[in-house]
TrEMBL record:
Region (Disordered): 148-194
Residues annotated as transmembrane: 119-138
Superkingdom of the organism of origin: Bacteria
Keywords: Membrane, Transmembrane, Transmembrane helix
Naturally occurring in which organism (per UniProt): Streptomyces roseolilacinus
Protein name in UniProt: VanZ family protein
One Pfam family cited in the UniProt record for this chain: VanZ
UniProt keyword annotation of Transmembrane present: yes
InterPro entries from the UniProt entry: Teicoplanin_resist-assoc, VanZ-like
PANTHER family in alphabetical order: INTEGRAL MEMBRANE PROTEIN, MEMBRANE PROTEIN-RELATED
Chain ranges of the VanZ-like domain: 16-134
Length: 194
């Protein structure tokens, strides 16, 4: 039951965040001129650093923060506790990079917007940092809460959440439906008729 609540909350917050990001990044800008597209990695970041520390922190920070919530919302929408930390990080960062790349490609059709490869790099780094800062600690806390005496029924199991009301046997013993079902049936060879 708790997994359903986390999944619903994660999907709702993820939807709201993506709508907000779309509104911020895909609306036309009314500008007199537009800079050229930046297809050279780190060139825009170097240009931001040349503007001074305050402006550099503002511009680089905006790039890091724009999609950073995806680093937390994507695993929350997945609602699994027993996931390898590196697999979760790779999956979340890859999804964040694809969302960022999609936004940059959609911006090519929006007046006043240009493609910037550094935006993809910064957005992806923001997703990774948010994931590393929040998700492992949050999952560990939930695992401790679920395994504590009196924890919520339907706690974590390998591959996700268990079915509510179904309890695992104590002592590691497997019930018949939990274990292997036996040998795979073989079909005997049949000769071909003359």
């Amino acid at each position: 039951m708790a997994a359903i609540r986390y999944r619903v909350a994660g999907l709702a917050l993820l939807s709201v965040h993506l709508v907000l990001v779309g509104w911020l990044t895909l609306r036309p800008l009314d500008v007199m001129w537009v800079t050229a597209a930046n297809l050279e990695p780190l060139a825009g970041i170097r240009a931001d650093l040349a503007l001074g520390p305050v402006e550099a922190v503002r511009r680089i920070g905006e790039g890091l923060v724009l999609l950073a919530p995806l680093g937390v919302l994507l695993p929350l929408a997945d609602a699994r506790l027993d996931v390898a930390p590196w697999a979760s990080l790779v999956r979340t960062v890859a999804a964040g990079a694809l969302v960022s790349l999609g936004i940059e490609l959609l911006q090519t059709a929006v007046p006043g917007r240009v493609v910037d490869v550094d935006a993809v790099l910064l957005n992806t780094a923001g997703v990774a940092l948010a994931h590393l800062a929040v998700v492992p600690a949050f999952r560990a806390r939930l695992r401790r809460r679920m395994s504590a005496p009196g924890g919520t029924a339907g706690g974590p199991r390998a591959g996700g959440w268990s079915v509510p009301g179904r309890k695992r046997p104590q002592g590691g013993a497997l019930r018949r439906e939990d274990g292997p079902q036996g040998a795979t049936p073989r079909i005997p060879r049949v000769g071909i008729a003359p």
